[in-house]
Amino acid sequence: MRTALVLLLAVLAGTAVGALSALAGDGAARSLLAALTAVGLALPVAHQVIAPEPAGERAAGRGRRG
C-alpha cells in the first residue's frame, strides 16, 4: 500500500509539472522531459515523507483480515 501511494504521488507531481510546462508553451519533448524529471525527483521525497508502517502493526493487521 505504501509503495502504491509513493508512486502515485510521484506520478501526480510529474503530471502537474508536465501539464504546466505544456501550458507555458514548451514543446512536447521538453514537457515530457520536465515531467519525467519531476517524477524522478519526487520519488525519494515521497519515500521520506510517507513513514513506513512499524513491523508490529503490519503483523497485527494481517490477523484481522479475512
Describe the structure.
The structure is a single chain. The chain has 66 residues and is mainly α. It has one domain. 82% of the residues lie in helices and 0% in strands. The chain is built from 3 helices and no strands. The model has no long low-confidence stretch (mean pLDDT 86).
Secondary structure layout plus pairing:
Elements: H1 2-23, H2 28-49, H3 55-64
Helix pairs in contact: 1-2
Quick take:
The chain has three helices and no strands.
String of helices and strands: HHH
Portion of residues in helices?
over 70%
* Strand percent estimate: under 5%
Alpha-carbon Rg, integer: 17 Å
Shape: rod-shaped
Structural class estimated from helices and strands: mainly alpha
N→C terminal distance: 17 Å
- Overall pLDDT: 86
Task: Give the tally of structural domains.
Answer: 1
How many helices? The count is 3
Instruction: Describe the largest sheet.
Output: none
Number of strands: 0
Q: Spans of 5+ residues with little confidence (pLDDT < 50)?
A: none
Protein traits:
3 helices, mainly alpha, 66 residues, rod-shaped
